């Protein structure tokens, strides 16, 4: 978990065995992000940037508007949660990135997303 003066980000990931195919080097993960507005004014998430790294160190960058098709407004004391997915070629990898946001005055700011692990459960004890 990482905190800023205004926003707290928490991420949990899970391996989706039913959609994965290790023989084809396809490992599917879902991740759930919770974004909490700790400030006294509303904020809006405008965009995202992800750096996805597989177990061989191969990096993939993903960026775009909003998350899961929306640019959510988050009121003070409220949270927004969504689930998305990532596919990598190895049973272990990481994701990290940032969100581009604005406050009610239209001032842009960036919130870092902490590094989190994508791992097949049997690999990590």
TrEMBL record:
Q: Give residue ranges for domain ApaG.
A: 1-125
Q: Which Pfam families match?
A: DUF525
Q: Which Gene3D superfamilies match?
A: ApaG domain
Q: Name one GO biological process term.
A: error-free translesion synthesis
HAMAP family hit by this protein:
ApaG (MF_00791)
Name of the protein:
Protein ApaG
